[in-house]
Amino acid sequence: MNSAAQQQFAAAVASYAPETPRAQSIGVVGGYLAVDMYIRGLKAAGGCPTRASFIAALRNIHDYDGNGLIRPNVDLAHYREPNGCLNVVRVSADGAAFEPQGSEPVCGHSVPLPR
């Protein structure tokens, strides 16, 4: 979508990991989000956090957005629930890139699995 958050992410990868050939790969994005969540949890936990206080602080974050990369925001109190939204893309005519379809994610709802 080339949002401000995605531009910031790409600039961070280019600056701190220039050897990364594909900044948008799932591993790079996942690592970035994991570190962002870790930092957000440490800030929320305050000084000298324990493992328990860090986890409790994360579970009290109800608007996690992955530094702007995740839409809609995630309530970390419900960390086991999958995000019901996807950004829809298609492959460009030349096969060299993905093209976003629309400016907002398409959202659904969780369907419970049969037990």
Give me the side-by-side strand order of the main sheet: 1-4
Mean pLDDT: 85
Tally of separate helices: 3
Order of helices and strands: HHHEEEE
- The unreliable regions are none
Radius of gyration equals: 17 Å
Give the N-terminus to C-terminus distance in angstroms: 38 Å
Structural class: mainly alpha
Q: How many runs of DSSP E, i.e. beta strands?
A: 4
Biggest pleated-sheet summary: 2 strands, antiparallel
Work out the strand percent: 5-15%
Bulk shape: globular
Helix content class: 25-40%
Blueprint of the fold:
Elements (H helix, E strand, L loop, with lengths): L3 H13 L9 H20 L5 H9 L25 E2 L2 E3 L6 E3 L5 E2 L8
Antiparallel strand pairs: 1-4, 2-3
